[in-house]
Known about the structure:
The chain is α/β, with parallel strands linked by helices. The chain has helices at 30-36, 62-75, 88-99, 121-134, 140-154, 182-191, 206-209, 211-224; strands at 7-10, 15-19, 41-45, 81-86, 104-110, 170-175, 196-200. Helix content is 38%, strand content 16%.
Amino acid sequence: xxxxxxxTKQGSGPSLLLLHGNGEDGTYFVHQIAEFSKDFTVYAxxxxxxxxxxxxxxxxTISQFADDLLTFMDQRGLDRADILGFSDGGNxxxxxxxxxxxxxxxxxxxxxxxDPKGVKMPVQxxxxxxxxxxxxxxxxxARAKAELLGLMVKEPHIAPAELGKLTMxxxxxxxTQDMIRESHSRLIAASIPGARLAxxxxxxxxxxxxxxxxxxxxxxxxxxxxxxASKEESP
Length: 235
Protein backbone atom coordinates (compact mmCIF):
# COMPACT_ATOMS: atom_id res chain seq x y z
CA UNK A 1 0.00 0.00 0.00
CA UNK A 2 1.32 3.44 -0.98
CA UNK A 3 2.10 6.00 1.70
CA UNK A 4 2.08 9.79 1.58
CA UNK A 5 5.63 11.07 1.71
CA UNK A 6 6.15 14.29 3.64
CA UNK A 7 7.81 17.08 1.66
CA THR A 8 8.33 20.80 1.55
CA LYS A 9 7.85 22.75 -1.65
CA GLN A 10 9.38 26.11 -2.45
CA GLY A 11 9.97 28.27 -5.50
CA SER A 12 8.69 28.14 -9.06
CA GLY A 13 9.95 26.85 -12.37
CA PRO A 14 11.13 23.38 -13.44
CA SER A 15 10.91 20.65 -10.79
CA LEU A 16 13.97 19.79 -8.71
CA LEU A 17 13.66 16.86 -6.29
CA LEU A 18 16.04 16.63 -3.31
CA LEU A 19 16.63 13.22 -1.71
CA HIS A 20 18.44 13.17 1.66
CA GLY A 21 20.73 10.53 3.15
CA ASN A 22 20.33 7.73 5.69
CA GLY A 23 18.72 8.77 8.98
CA GLU A 24 18.12 12.36 7.82
CA ASP A 25 15.23 14.32 6.33
CA GLY A 26 14.64 17.04 3.78
CA THR A 27 15.91 19.77 6.10
CA TYR A 28 19.44 18.58 5.36
CA PHE A 29 19.19 20.59 2.13
CA VAL A 30 18.38 23.92 3.79
CA HIS A 31 21.09 25.72 1.79
CA GLN A 32 20.10 24.12 -1.50
CA ILE A 33 16.41 24.93 -1.00
CA ALA A 34 17.28 28.58 -0.40
CA GLU A 35 19.51 28.75 -3.47
CA PHE A 36 17.71 26.71 -6.09
CA SER A 37 14.16 27.78 -5.28
CA LYS A 38 15.15 31.02 -7.05
CA ASP A 39 14.90 29.16 -10.37
CA PHE A 40 13.19 25.82 -9.62
CA THR A 41 10.18 24.40 -7.87
CA VAL A 42 12.13 22.54 -5.19
CA TYR A 43 10.67 19.48 -3.50
CA ALA A 44 12.63 18.34 -0.42
CA UNK A 45 11.24 14.88 0.30
CA UNK A 46 11.41 12.80 3.46
CA UNK A 47 12.09 9.17 2.51
CA UNK A 48 9.82 6.43 3.86
CA UNK A 49 10.48 5.96 7.58
CA UNK A 50 12.53 9.18 7.77
CA UNK A 51 11.62 12.59 9.12
CA UNK A 52 7.87 13.08 8.95
CA UNK A 53 7.17 10.33 6.42
CA UNK A 54 5.50 7.17 7.75
CA UNK A 55 7.31 3.84 7.73
CA UNK A 56 4.40 1.91 6.25
CA UNK A 57 4.57 -1.86 5.86
CA UNK A 58 6.45 -2.19 2.56
CA UNK A 59 10.08 -3.39 2.50
CA UNK A 60 12.62 -0.89 3.83
CA THR A 61 14.90 -0.99 0.79
CA ILE A 62 16.46 1.28 -1.81
CA SER A 63 14.27 -0.46 -4.37
CA GLN A 64 11.10 0.40 -2.45
CA PHE A 65 12.24 3.98 -1.95
CA ALA A 66 12.67 4.30 -5.73
CA ASP A 67 9.12 2.97 -6.16
CA ASP A 68 7.93 5.53 -3.60
CA LEU A 69 9.57 8.27 -5.64
CA LEU A 70 7.72 7.17 -8.78
CA THR A 71 4.43 7.25 -6.87
CA PHE A 72 5.29 10.69 -5.50
CA MET A 73 5.88 12.06 -9.01
CA ASP A 74 2.78 10.41 -10.43
CA GLN A 75 0.59 11.77 -7.63
CA ARG A 76 1.72 15.31 -8.40
CA GLY A 77 1.72 15.06 -12.18
CA LEU A 78 5.49 15.49 -12.43
CA ASP A 79 6.33 13.88 -15.76
CA ARG A 80 10.02 14.74 -15.54
CA ALA A 81 12.32 16.36 -13.01
CA ASP A 82 15.89 17.14 -12.13
CA ILE A 83 16.91 14.94 -9.19
CA LEU A 84 19.66 15.61 -6.66
CA GLY A 85 20.34 12.74 -4.28
CA PHE A 86 22.78 12.65 -1.38
CA SER A 87 24.30 9.43 0.02
CA ASP A 88 21.44 6.89 0.24
CA GLY A 89 19.36 9.53 -1.54
CA GLY A 90 21.89 9.36 -4.35
CA ASN A 91 21.50 5.58 -4.42
CA UNK A 92 17.72 5.99 -4.61
CA UNK A 93 18.10 8.55 -7.40
CA UNK A 94 20.43 6.29 -9.36
CA UNK A 95 18.15 3.27 -8.95
CA UNK A 96 15.19 5.39 -10.04
CA UNK A 97 17.05 6.76 -13.08
CA UNK A 98 18.02 3.27 -14.23
CA UNK A 99 14.38 2.14 -14.02
CA UNK A 100 12.68 5.28 -15.27
CA UNK A 101 15.17 7.25 -17.39
CA UNK A 102 12.35 9.08 -19.16
CA UNK A 103 11.30 10.66 -15.84
CA UNK A 104 14.74 12.18 -15.12
CA UNK A 105 15.86 15.35 -16.87
CA UNK A 106 19.23 15.69 -15.12
CA UNK A 107 20.78 13.69 -12.30
CA UNK A 108 23.13 14.81 -9.51
CA UNK A 109 24.69 12.03 -7.44
CA UNK A 110 26.34 13.35 -4.26
CA UNK A 111 28.29 10.78 -2.24
CA UNK A 112 26.47 7.84 -3.83
CA UNK A 113 27.87 4.31 -4.04
CA UNK A 114 27.22 1.25 -6.18
CA ASP A 115 27.78 -1.28 -3.39
CA PRO A 116 28.81 -1.33 0.29
CA LYS A 117 32.48 -1.74 -0.69
CA GLY A 118 32.40 1.82 -1.97
CA VAL A 119 32.40 3.03 1.65
CA LYS A 120 35.80 3.41 3.28
CA MET A 121 36.56 0.55 5.67
CA PRO A 122 37.09 2.68 8.83
CA VAL A 123 33.57 4.04 8.34
CA GLN A 124 31.90 0.81 7.28
CA UNK A 125 33.18 -1.42 10.08
CA UNK A 126 31.39 0.47 12.91
CA UNK A 127 28.23 0.54 10.78
CA UNK A 128 28.35 -3.24 10.36
CA UNK A 129 29.02 -3.71 14.08
CA UNK A 130 26.17 -1.38 15.01
CA UNK A 131 23.81 -3.21 12.68
CA UNK A 132 24.58 -6.61 14.17
CA UNK A 133 24.30 -5.25 17.72
CA UNK A 134 20.95 -3.56 17.06
CA UNK A 135 19.69 -6.75 15.40
CA UNK A 136 20.10 -8.61 18.69
CA UNK A 137 17.39 -6.56 20.40
CA UNK A 138 13.63 -6.64 19.83
CA UNK A 139 12.58 -3.16 20.96
CA UNK A 140 11.00 -0.85 18.33
CA UNK A 141 13.95 1.53 18.69
CA ALA A 142 16.48 -1.26 18.07
CA ARG A 143 14.53 -2.57 15.09
CA ALA A 144 14.35 0.90 13.58
CA LYS A 145 18.09 1.39 14.05
CA ALA A 146 18.83 -2.02 12.52
CA GLU A 147 16.69 -1.12 9.50
CA LEU A 148 18.57 2.14 8.94
CA LEU A 149 22.02 0.63 9.37
CA GLY A 150 20.99 -2.37 7.30
CA LEU A 151 20.56 -0.11 4.28
CA MET A 152 24.25 0.74 4.42
CA VAL A 153 25.34 -2.82 5.23
CA LYS A 154 23.32 -4.62 2.56
CA GLU A 155 22.75 -2.07 -0.19
CA PRO A 156 22.97 -1.00 -2.92
CA HIS A 157 24.14 -3.52 -5.55
CA ILE A 158 24.48 -1.81 -8.92
CA ALA A 159 26.92 -3.11 -11.52
CA PRO A 160 29.06 -0.43 -13.17
CA ALA A 161 28.08 -1.84 -16.57
CA GLU A 162 24.44 -0.90 -15.88
CA LEU A 163 25.38 2.78 -15.77
CA GLY A 164 26.16 2.76 -19.48
CA LYS A 165 22.41 2.81 -20.13
CA LEU A 166 22.01 6.32 -18.69
CA THR A 167 21.73 9.03 -21.31
CA MET A 168 20.62 12.07 -19.27
CA UNK A 169 23.22 14.61 -18.11
CA UNK A 170 24.80 13.43 -14.84
CA UNK A 171 26.96 15.17 -12.25
CA UNK A 172 28.85 13.01 -9.76
CA UNK A 173 29.92 15.16 -6.82
CA UNK A 174 31.78 14.19 -3.66
CA UNK A 175 34.01 15.60 -0.95
CA THR A 176 37.77 15.23 -1.14
CA GLN A 177 37.62 13.61 2.32
CA ASP A 178 34.38 11.76 1.65
CA MET A 179 33.47 8.48 3.37
CA ILE A 180 32.94 7.16 -0.16
CA ARG A 181 36.22 6.08 -1.74
CA GLU A 182 37.35 8.60 -4.35
CA SER A 183 38.16 5.73 -6.71
CA HIS A 184 34.53 4.63 -6.37
CA SER A 185 33.16 8.08 -7.20
CA ARG A 186 35.48 8.19 -10.19
CA LEU A 187 34.25 4.75 -11.27
CA ILE A 188 30.64 5.92 -11.19
CA ALA A 189 31.44 8.99 -13.28
CA ALA A 190 33.56 7.01 -15.74
CA SER A 191 30.81 4.41 -16.20
CA ILE A 192 28.12 6.95 -17.18
CA PRO A 193 28.46 8.31 -20.72
CA GLY A 194 29.34 12.01 -20.60
CA ALA A 195 29.07 12.30 -16.82
CA ARG A 196 30.85 15.14 -15.07
CA LEU A 197 32.83 14.72 -11.85
CA ALA A 198 33.29 17.43 -9.22
CA UNK A 199 35.38 16.97 -6.08
CA UNK A 200 34.75 19.64 -3.43
CA UNK A 201 37.11 20.20 -0.48
CA UNK A 202 35.39 18.69 2.55
CA UNK A 203 33.85 15.49 3.87
CA UNK A 204 30.71 13.53 3.01
CA UNK A 205 28.41 16.39 4.04
CA UNK A 206 29.62 19.09 1.65
CA UNK A 207 26.11 20.20 0.63
CA UNK A 208 25.42 21.23 4.22
CA UNK A 209 28.91 22.21 5.39
CA UNK A 210 30.31 23.76 2.20
CA UNK A 211 27.15 25.04 0.50
CA UNK A 212 28.77 27.86 -1.47
CA UNK A 213 31.18 25.55 -3.30
CA UNK A 214 28.60 22.78 -3.61
CA UNK A 215 25.88 25.03 -5.00
CA UNK A 216 28.33 26.64 -7.41
CA UNK A 217 29.26 23.23 -8.85
CA UNK A 218 25.60 22.23 -9.21
CA UNK A 219 24.67 25.61 -10.71
CA UNK A 220 27.51 25.30 -13.24
CA UNK A 221 26.24 21.85 -14.19
CA UNK A 222 22.71 23.18 -14.65
CA UNK A 223 23.98 26.07 -16.78
CA UNK A 224 26.13 23.85 -18.99
CA UNK A 225 23.31 21.36 -19.54
CA UNK A 226 20.47 23.85 -20.01
CA UNK A 227 18.48 23.43 -23.22
CA UNK A 228 19.78 25.68 -25.94
CA ALA A 229 17.69 28.84 -26.16
CA SER A 230 15.59 28.91 -29.27
CA LYS A 231 16.75 31.49 -31.77
CA GLU A 232 14.40 34.34 -32.52
CA GLU A 233 12.96 34.23 -35.99
CA SER A 234 14.27 36.86 -38.35
CA PRO A 235 11.71 39.51 -39.24
